[in-house]
Amino acid sequence: MVIKPLEDRIVVKPIENESKTAAGIYLPESAKEKPVRGKVLAVGPGKRLENGKRAEMSVKVGATVVYGKYAGSEVEVKGEKHLIIKESELLGVLEA
Hints:
The chain is mostly beta strands. It has strands at residues 9-14, 37-43, 64-67, 73-77, 80-86, 90-94. Strands 4-5-1-2-3-6 form a six-stranded antiparallel beta sheet, with no helix packed on it.
């Protein structure tokens, strides 16, 4: 099963935070923060404008993005959690 996002939506695979601190202390699940960055797996065609054309998406597949802690809708595909996020909910793109 593959998710194909519609309009200006993006499918993101969250990147989990480290479970160990820099000092080597392991954190329990309850102390971990919700991920706020992820890798873009799929991008929709873009929002349809009033003139009938589509707006170009500013994010490409493979990009690492930052989003709000409670952004998007969580879906599970083949046992893995993914987020479907609107492009406007993204906070930024991480560049190497």
